[in-house]
Amino acid sequence: MNGPCPVVELRGVSKVYPGRVHALRGVDLTVEPGELLAIVGPSGSGKSTMLHMIGTLDRPSGGTVRIAGYDVAGLSDRELSALRARQLGFVFQQFHLAPGVSALDNVADGLLYTGTGRRARRERAAAALERVGLGHRLTHRPSQLSGGEQQRVAVARAVAGDPPLLLADEPTGNLDSASGTEVLAVLGELHAAGTTIAIITHDTEIAAWCPRQVRVRDGRIVAEMGSEMGAEMGAEVRAEAGVPIGEGGGREA
Amino acid sequence: MKRERQRGPAPARLAVADVLRVGASGLRARPTRVVLSALGIAIGIATMIAVIGISSSSREQLLRQLDRLGTNLLTVAPGQTMFGEEAKLPIGALAMVERIGPVRTAAATGGTDATVRRTRHIPEAVTGGIAVQATTTGLLATLEGAVVKGAWLNAATERRPAVVLGAESARRLGLARAGVQVWMGGRWFTVIGILGPMPLAPEIERSALVGFPAAEEFLGFDGHPTTIYERSADEAVEAVRAVLPRTVNPENPEEVTVSRPSDALAAKAAAAGAFTNLLLGLGAVALLVGGVGVANTMVISVLERRREIGLRRSLGATRGQVRVQFLSESLLLSALGGVVGSVFGALATTGYALARDWPPVVPPWAIGGAIGATLLIGTVAGIYPAMRAARLSPTVALTTT
């Protein structure tokens, strides 16, 4: 990387879908390395479109999107794919795990497009599963895992390649509250270990758990809470929210 | 900071093993569908391999027979006179033939009017279709035949009331051993031998053979040969063929017919592949239908797996890598059908050939062609679904529920 440039830099980003649907209307957002932020808003607020912009899954209609210093507008589809492979990790609401494939191979396949050899992929996958507290579930298939465990496998897949940014789209949306807490604890640990994480959610409770919150409504950022330097403060907020964090937090379930 | 056209990161190349593994994992997830759509290809390939294999085995059998029997045997028979009557070969014809330089061995047979019966009580009209023929002792060597029971005629027995039976005539008379007597031309003859099969001279199989002197003495034979068999060096066959009529009958060479018994076998071998075109066409149609089945399976697969495609795009797969994934899946699917079909086709060929006592032959070019055809079909059937999968936008694919 070229110096301490922001992981995400949105400048006046707008997105218009066919039929003159203005999903985003001039959004500015900067995410520094090491941050944990929530992009929160009701459905239809444009937060999913923001995920698509930050995740380089779609291109803006106006404005500039820079991910890890690369201007998305100047990159071809191939280069964007490579950018996603190396700089971004995604966690989705529906887990998106391959059925009938072991947790280890599900995670290892996440590294398929990074140019890593098969043996190295499996080693890093095992390490990533260890990090999310599933070191004892390597050979289990998704159907043999609880919802929370499945989402932790998906988190392991997203972080196996150590991407500078982890994007989580409603990571607890399909889970009961206990499993949701379990997954958030894992994200908290990853953040504590230095991973930059952006959580897209409609749940204000989860948002409150994050040190920085970006509220979105009608395609605009309407409020920012928490400072950009809020790493220490965030820890207090999380303690107040009663989320178990720290060593072994995710392993008790 | 670079201003103009920044160079982005280059996507990693997928190893061939990884491409195949991803393709195979897509198939493993839906085994029933894979088996059924590969079956279509397999049936087509098996049909074509079996058709080619069986006709090749049949041809191989004929060619081996031809090889074993040789193509250097010529037969000389009387034709017709200018007036349409049956001609006769001169009595000295065999001696003339033996004097032709390249001729190695020669022998003659002559038809008689006698019949052969087990006893005198059987009516004379019941001949069983067996011809009683006079023969020279060189016949067995010339036809390269074998005696399966007893002995062949020699200089002593050709003068005695002794008979050697062809394989078919022995069967018709119900005789399986030498030493018994048969009723021929109003007296008993002793069966001294029984011959084995004579593929190049089936008429000998249906004959009862006695020596020339004995036939003249006991059966009223006139001494005119009716067929002369001769073998020469392979390269001299055409030359010998050209001089035979003039040698045998210098006065009326046009009354002599020369033929090459192996020609019939050669023609059969050449014809063995001809009738298979229709069956090959049927196999091709089955293959085409199988290809349509593969394409159909792949289109459905792409529709069902939009979320997987979206996930792979988010993990960093390029459009090309998605395309390659679905193409390899389609290729593997049809290759599976091709391999299974080839195996079944080869098994069918082997079974059929062994049941007929033929050498089983599955030509390598047929297997190569089958594999080539399935790869072609897999590619063609996979192109459209793969393009669809690659063109899918990642956001649309991910929001599909």
TrEMBL record, chain A:
<keyword id="KW-0547">Nucleotide-binding</keyword>
<dbReference type="GO" id="GO:0005886">
    <property type="term" value="C:plasma membrane"/>
</dbReference>
<dbReference type="InterPro" id="IPR027417">
    <property type="entry name" value="P-loop_NTPase"/>
</dbReference>
<keyword id="KW-0067">ATP-binding</keyword>
<keyword id="KW-0813">Transport</keyword>
<dbReference type="InterPro" id="IPR015854">
    <property type="entry name" value="ABC_transpr_LolD-like"/>
</dbReference>
<dbReference type="InterPro" id="IPR017871">
    <property type="entry name" value="ABC_transporter-like_CS"/>
</dbReference>
<dbReference type="InterPro" id="IPR017911">
    <property type="entry name" value="MacB-like_ATP-bd"/>
</dbReference>
<dbReference type="GO" id="GO:0016887">
    <property type="term" value="F:ATP hydrolysis activity"/>
</dbReference>
<protein>
    <submittedName>
        <fullName>Peptide ABC transporter ATP-binding protein</fullName>
    </submittedName>
</protein>
<dbReference type="InterPro" id="IPR003439">
    <property type="entry name" value="ABC_transporter-like_ATP-bd"/>
</dbReference>
<dbReference type="GO" id="GO:0005524">
    <property type="term" value="F:ATP binding"/>
</dbReference>
<dbReference type="GO" id="GO:0022857">
    <property type="term" value="F:transmembrane transporter activity"/>
</dbReference>
<dbReference type="InterPro" id="IPR003593">
    <property type="entry name" value="AAA+_ATPase"/>
</dbReference>
<dbReference type="GO" id="GO:0098796">
    <property type="term" value="C:membrane protein complex"/>
</dbReference>
<feature type="domain" description="ABC transporter">
    <location>
        <begin position="8"/>
        <end position="243"/>
    </location>
</feature>
<dbReference type="Pfam" id="PF00005">
    <property type="entry name" value="ABC_tran"/>
</dbReference>
TrEMBL record, chain B:
<feature type="transmembrane region" description="Helical">
    <location>
        <begin position="365"/>
        <end position="384"/>
    </location>
</feature>
<dbReference type="InterPro" id="IPR025857">
    <property type="entry name" value="MacB_PCD"/>
</dbReference>
<dbReference type="GO" id="GO:0022857">
    <property type="term" value="F:transmembrane transporter activity"/>
</dbReference>
<dbReference type="InterPro" id="IPR050250">
    <property type="entry name" value="Macrolide_Exporter_MacB"/>
</dbReference>
<feature type="transmembrane region" description="Helical">
    <location>
        <begin position="278"/>
        <end position="303"/>
    </location>
</feature>
<protein>
    <submittedName>
        <fullName>ABC transporter permease</fullName>
    </submittedName>
</protein>
<feature type="transmembrane region" description="Helical">
    <location>
        <begin position="34"/>
        <end position="54"/>
    </location>
</feature>
<dbReference type="GO" id="GO:0005886">
    <property type="term" value="C:plasma membrane"/>
</dbReference>
<keyword id="KW-1133">Transmembrane helix</keyword>
<keyword id="KW-0472">Membrane</keyword>
<feature type="domain" description="MacB-like periplasmic core">
    <location>
        <begin position="35"/>
        <end position="241"/>
    </location>
</feature>
<feature type="domain" description="ABC3 transporter permease C-terminal">
    <location>
        <begin position="282"/>
        <end position="394"/>
    </location>
</feature>
<dbReference type="Pfam" id="PF12704">
    <property type="entry name" value="MacB_PCD"/>
</dbReference>
<dbReference type="InterPro" id="IPR003838">
    <property type="entry name" value="ABC3_permease_C"/>
</dbReference>
<dbReference type="Pfam" id="PF02687">
    <property type="entry name" value="FtsX"/>
</dbReference>
<keyword id="KW-0812">Transmembrane</keyword>
<feature type="transmembrane region" description="Helical">
    <location>
        <begin position="331"/>
        <end position="353"/>
    </location>
</feature>
<keyword id="KW-1003">Cell membrane</keyword>
<comment type="similarity">
    <text>Belongs to the ABC-4 integral membrane protein family.</text>
</comment>
